[in-house]
Amino acid sequence: MEKVINFLTNRWFKLGVSVLSLGYPVFLGFVAWLMMGYYLEPTHQGALVTTYIFINIIFFGLMLFTRKQIITRIVAMVSPFIAFAILLFGFGNWFAAIPPIVASVLIFFLSGMGETTKIVLGTIYLIMYVVGILVYLTFKMLFGNITLMDVDLSRRSTSYRYSPDKQYRIVLYVDPENDASRSVSFYLEQTDGDISLPFLECRNAMNGLHIITSDYNKPADVTWKDKHTLYVDGRKREFNFDAVTEDTAAEEDY
After folding, report:
1. Which residue has the higher pLDDT, 229 or 199?
2. What pLDDT, on a 0 to 100 scale, did the predictor assign at position 96?
């Protein structure tokens, strides 16, 4: 038993285990990326939440065990920032935001960082969280839901219309029922950017092409023919996703 304890408390063993903690900011970055550009559709909500919480607990345990190692201390410094990104991009999705925030904040204060570093960074993170949330809520009140995409995902319908070759899908965004001039917008998305995870389907919603917006009570007739030929109200509609990408790149360069 003493040999086992000596092995587990060996500094080199802990240093090796601390390398695994590098996976936590990678994991959080992946979650933030999904929140930023994908529409997430859980296939089993309970199993997804349980798995997500379990992953956060596992990483927290690893970091707590190696809290005095330099690698873990660095991870503890950056994790609250990435958790903040998850909070903003997935605001309102508390199942996604709360576990990493709790784990990141706890390991930040329990890690082996110096007290001065904790006070300085802790103050910065506190201001970042408070000010960031207030600014987000203010913008949301003034301009509606904030997203890096051109659409409001809260109005997205999951009744997709896939092309015969499954390379594209038509997505409907419907205005709220109490909207006097209620309309429905048709968008075209590519499916090759979708990601399928255990208990979760991630639909790539970035760079979707707007097809047409019509009255909700008299929606446009948008149909597929052949492999992926699109017809709108009986007329063939050409679409080019490369043009959207080039326009976006040009705007960024400008």
Report:
1. 199
2. 93
Residues paired with residue 23 on neighbouring β-strands, in sequence order: none
Per-residue pLDDT tens over the stretch 62-118? 999 999 899 999 999 999 999 999 998 888 889 999 999 999 999 999 988 888 989
Find the Cα–Cα–Cα–Cα dihedral 207, 30, 25, 119, rounded to 10°. Answer: 50
Cβ(171)–Cβ(186) under 8 Å?
A: yes
The continuous run of DSSP H or E covering 126 comes out as helix 115-143
Instruction: State the alpha helices, DSSP H only, in 2-114.
Output: 2-8, 11-18, 23-37, 45-65, 70-89, 94-110
Q: Which residue type occupies 89?
A: F
Q: How many residues are listed for the chain in this entry?
A: 254
The predicted-structure confidence for 30-63, as pLDDT tens digits, reads as follows: 999 999 889 999 999 999 999 999 999 999 999 9
H or E element, residue 224: strand 222-225
User: Is residue 115 a contact partner of residue 90, using CB atoms and an 8 Å limit?
Assistant: no
Distance CA 147, CA 170 (A): 20
Q: Is 216 helix (H, G, I), strand (E, B) or coil?
A: coil
| 217-236 CB burial, b ≥16 within 10 A, e <16 | eebeebebeeeeebeeeeee
86 Rama class: left (phi>0) / alpha (psi -120 to 50) / beta: alpha
Pull the structure tokens for residue 93.
């999705």
Which pLDDT score, from 0 to 100, does residue 251 have?
Answer: 35
When the pLDDT of each residue in the chain is averaged and rounded to a whole number, the result is 86
| SS3 (DSSP) at 93 | coil
